[in-house]
Amino acid sequence: MDDTIQAVLDHYHARIAQEQAQRAAHPTGPASASPTATTTLTAPDRDERLLAVGPETGRLINIIARAFDKPNILEIGTSYGYSGIWLAHAARESGGRLTTLELQDYKAAYAREQSEKAGLADYVDFQVGDALALIDALPHGIDFVLLDLWKDLYTPCLDAFYPKLNPGAIIVADNINRPGGPGIEAYLKALRTKKGISSLLLPVGTGIEVSRYDP
Ligand SMILES: C[S@@+](CC[C@H](N)C(=O)[O-])C[C@H]1O[C@@H](n2cnc3c(N)ncnc32)[C@H](O)[C@@H]1O
Question: Looking at domain 3-213, what is its CATH homologous superfamily?
Answer without folding.
Answer: Vaccinia Virus protein VP39 (3.40.50.150)
